[in-house]
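Changelog-adjacent note: as of this version, every example in the card shows the full chain rather than a window. The one below runs 89 residues end to end.
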Amino acid sequence: MSSKHAIYYEKERLWEASDSVVTQNSKGEILNTELLFWDEKEERIYSPGFVQITTKDEVIYGDGFESDQSFTYWNITKVKGTIYQETEK
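Full-length structure tokens:
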């Protein structure tokens, strides 16, 4: 994960990253946002605001995001944009 600014709240074991936040997972998916939290106790990352996720096949936008801390299993709320779904042949 990279950002221009970060704060660590030691008592809560919570990171707050802001300003040009970028993270990438093992599948090569890239998350861009302006505000991202990493809750070490709950082992999850989340953002209450605008997010963009770029996958191999698409770019997904939304307002609100939550994932496990490795950014493997994620969910965007208030999805915007086109999402492609594979169908079985």
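Structural remarks: DSSP finds no helices and seven strands in the chain.
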